[in-house]
Amino acid sequence: MGMNVGSEGDDDDVIGVINTTPLVDVMLVLLIIFLITVPVVTHTIPVKLPEETNQKYETKPENVTLAVNKEGQVFWNEKYIPDQNTLLGLLKEQSVKRPQPEVHIRGDQQTHYESIGKVIETVQQAGIIKISFVTQPPARG
Description:
3 helices
């Protein structure tokens, strides 16, 4: 795109083209700055995160299955447990067995965390070491 100013005989024409050289220089400098600073920003405290494992659920007769419904009621192998003291007593009986049984907790999706937390605390108070959460795998479609 050109532009004429003044008489037609002048050789001093105004140049109407944008000089992109300074723009390219600035962009290259910014690119170099980002390439240098991004690796520094992404480094954090080194922590080894646990890896996801998918173990098949095996039901053994000695395993204890605790289910917590959305109202927070606890069931021991499908038998209703009325309070935490009863649950603690039953778990203490199981904790003295060798090998110690595993406790599998099945919690409803709508269950409040507090209800599950109380069950976990009771299991720990009883002295049972291994607690597992039973989940359902996602539907494949």
